[in-house]
Please model this.
Amino acid sequence: MSMQKLEAPTTLALIPLAWGEDALEATLAAQQSVVAANGGHCEVILLGAEGHDIACERAAQAGATRIWQVTHADLAGNDDMAALAMAASQALHQPLAERGAQTLVLLPPGIAGEELAARLAHLLSGHALGRCARLHWQNEAWVVERVTWGGRMRLSMRVESGLCFACLRGGRANFANSEPAQVTNTALVGGLPALMALDRRPTGQHLPPLDGAKLVVSGGRGVNERGFELLETLAVALGGTLGGSLPAVDAGMVPVMRQVGVSGKFVSPAIYLAVGISGTPQHLAGINPQTRIVAINTDVGADIFNVADVGVVADWNLLLPELLGVIKAQALI
Ligand SMILES: Cc1cc2nc3c(=O)[nH]c(=O)nc-3n(C[C@H](O)[C@H](O)[C@H](O)COP(=O)(O)OP(=O)(O)OC[C@H]3O[C@@H](n4cnc5c(N)ncnc54)[C@H](O)[C@@H]3O)c2cc1C
Model:
């Protein structure tokens, strides 16, 4: 007896046109990869202040059988995420009314797409699946694979019912389809939430951001205020920047935007200098596994030494002034 594989339900891609061609192509590529692996149809919702014939054509060439061009005049020049999410939830109304309860909605991959996915899940009582590595349809449920702990672990989740909002990277889209798509044009009415008035103030931060830094000098609970001053001097002298663990942020030693870890930033420098940091999984999750870690810690049994490329069992009170002295002597400061 031959087992017949059940096709996945139709996959919807929701693409804000204001996010540009890259977002359009990346989402269509993700949708193609899901449909290639699981079957089912592709439908696309293009959301913007006005219709966009080229985007519509690209979606059809990528294999969409149905395209919903949804416009809302209030989206013109409005980059407020709350307003976009509200418009997107309204744009989904009709397509979802025609779909089953287990519809998968793909948003553009990236941080903005993940935020939109979370907002939509909240507005429409669905599941925010976030950044997925793989999505497959198995025994009438979506099975989602996610990479976590900075690439050290893969999680598999099974979603048996409800609307799912996800982001996925799918390589390059193929635009070879020549079948026409059915296009439905809808103009939304009704006000969107007003833009939040943001008061921009200088942060007082003079160090480069963590993103893109080649060297991160990071301090943990084992470092006090004087130690962080030394770490900052060291970071500047070596052309790097400053980071910290969660307890260092909680103690007010470093701003929260410099927290490294599962609930902070993910960093990929060539070298990560960890001072007074024990090396918990929550902290290590924020460091690229390819990064070389240099650790300074008084505790020879600290977990950070299990992952460090260079480990120094020492008290920073003694080591950092010596190190800065050597650098100064070599006229690096
Ligand atoms: C949901 C959740 C999310 C979290 N997210 C994060 C996150 O994003 N980032 C994060 O960092 N943590 C996070 N944590 C917290 C995490 O579990 C740890 O509490 C934290 O990573 C420990 O930070 P630490 O290494 O600075 O402190 P500790 O574990 O207390 O380590 C301090 C180290 O300093 C050493 N030390 C002490 N004095 C000296 C000295 N004079 N010289 C040299 N070494 C010295 C000690 O030997 C020790 O190893 C999270 C926890 C939870 C539950």
The chain has a mean pLDDT of 91.
